[in-house]
Specification:
CATH class of one domain: Alpha Beta
Largest sheet: 10 strands, mixed
CATH superfamily of one domain: Aldolase class I
Number of helices: 15
Shape: globular
Helix content: 25-40%
Structural class: alpha/beta
Order of helices and strands: EEEEHHEHHEHEHEHEHHEHEHEEEEHHHH
Number of strands: 15
Strand order of the largest sheet: 11-10-9-8-7-6-12-13-14-15
């Protein structure tokens, strides 16, 4: 037996005779003695240690074979997937005037038509077959709740379609939260609403500057009211978008939520992310944001915010084996006009549509370059299970194309140990 290629080893400062082992492949962790680890490096194990470390994915029979197996891991994940996932952009309209809106020059009063809705149902009907057990729709915008009537119409039809074939139907919303009142939440929950992600950009003074109504009025209070009204009807997630000059103030939002009795059991996830820079070739008034995760200030920002979320009892996401949506044959992004993409960030970008719901998928090489990570450098990288070539959209922002990888090694080198220690400290399970 050999140590896995995808194993990180960290010192354990609390006891210098111990080491912290972490499998990037299985997100498992264990403390072992330095003596035991030295024996493991030589391939010497007690029966008990061999059994446990094998179960945790930290030792393998052959490292070369492990690397070969990783070449097919995404295909294996896809073969086990029983869900058809469609992100549907209902409109490009919004009642907010966000300072950094990533939809930039493509936004406007564009809505999914009756004809496109009918073709969408046909497109889904053809693909929700065989081994598929669940149909999951992510309603997106613009602001999806400006199309709440369409959400209800589609949900009635798609729920019936899925259940008639022995499956289930569910949907999520990515919304600014201003229209998510209790009566709307009750109606949508009855139709299959599972999760709602709402954005709060820090405390009121930051949020209201970044995400006001089109009238200029602040939206923070309306969103807080709606969270209080609806938390017990569905899973609520809170996201937020920070910048270099305001991320420290996001701690004030966490304290405000607690003071307003929006406690951890009422919010399933809180996750803050940096604002992404808008590609220079597309018109946008916003010129800030990040081009990659390698920007030095992000290291301290991400660690600090994650710590503050966890120590208040809220849950946030960590690093786990996952591949980009562009690698999944059962995930689609459908624009309001019926054009099909593989990532919401590329909607409206020339050359990235892979078909349309009227004529089907194009017979072409994917413009998103799936499988770019299948090279020796990536396969032998300990972070492959957490990265798989990184984010295509960030590469596009940086280079104007997706011909290169978005390597996350520098970011993970700087942050992974801290994230693992946070999980241990706050007893967060993989």
């Amino acid at each position: 037996m050999q140590l896995s290629q995808y194993l990180k080893v960290f010192p354990w400062e609390e006891d210098h005779d111990l080491l912290l082992l972490y499998s990037t492949k299985q997100a498992s962790k264990i403390l072992i003695s330095k003596k035991t680890f030295c024996q493991a490096e030589k391939g010497i194990f007690s029966p008990e240690d061999e059994s446990l470390l094998t179960e945790l994915g930290m030792i393998v029979s052959d490292r070369g074979e492990e690397q070969k197996a990783m070449l097919g891991v995404v295909d294996e994940i896809n073969s086990r997937n029983k869900t058809l996932n469609v992100t549907l952009i209902l409109n490009l309209d919004c009642n907010f005037a966000c300072r950094y809106c990533f939809e930039g020059d493509v936004k406007g009063k564009h809505y999914l038509s009756d004809d496109t809705a009918d073709h969408l149902i046909g497109f889904i009907s053809e693909r929700f077959a065989g081994t598929k057990e669940k149909l999951l729709i992510d309603f997106y915008g613009g602001e999806p709740l400006l199309s709440i009537g369409r959400i209800k119409e589609l949900s009635v039809t798609l729920k019936s379609l899925a259940e008639a074939r022995g499956g289930s139907y569910g949907f999520t919303l990515v919304t600014n939260g201003s229209l998510f009142r209790r009566h709307a939440a009750e109606e949508l929950a009855a139709l299959g609403l599972e999760t709602v992600k709402i954005t709060l950009d820090g405390p009121a003074h930051i949020h209201n500057t970044n995400r006001p109504f089109k009238s200029g009025k602040g939206s923070f209070d309306a969103i807080i009211r709606n969270i209080k009204e609806t938390w017990n009807l569905t899973r609520l997630q809170v996201g937020g978008n920070y910048e270099i000059d305001n991320y420290k103030d996001f701690v004030l939002l966490l304290d405000y939520l607690l003071a307003e009795d929006i406690t951890p059991e009422k919010i399933s996830v809180i996750k803050f992310d940096p604002v992404s820079k808008y590609p220079e070739r597309y018109a946008s008034d916003y010129t800030g944001g990040c081009m990659s995760l390698d920007e030095p200030w992000l290291i301290s920002a991400s660690a600090m915010l994650r710590e503050e979320i966890l120590k208040r009892g809220y849950y946030t996401l960590g690093q786990r084996l996952s591949a980009c949506i562009v690698e999944s044959p059962d995930s689609y992004v459908v624009n309001f006009d019926g054009a099909i993409y593989k990532c919401p960030g590329f909607v409206g970008k020339e050359g990235f549509a892979v078909g349309d719901i009227r004529n089907g998928l194009k017979k072409q090489i994917s413009p998103y370059k799936p499988g770019m990570w299948k090279n020796e450098e990536c396969i032998t990288c300990v972070y492959l299970p957490l990265c798989f070539g990184g984010c295509r959209y960030l590469t596009f922002v940086r280079d104007g194309n997706v011909n290169a990888l978005d390597c996350q090694k520098p970011f993970l080198d700087a942050t992974l140990e801290t994230m693992i220690r946070q999980e241990i400290k706050y007893n967060i399970r993989a």
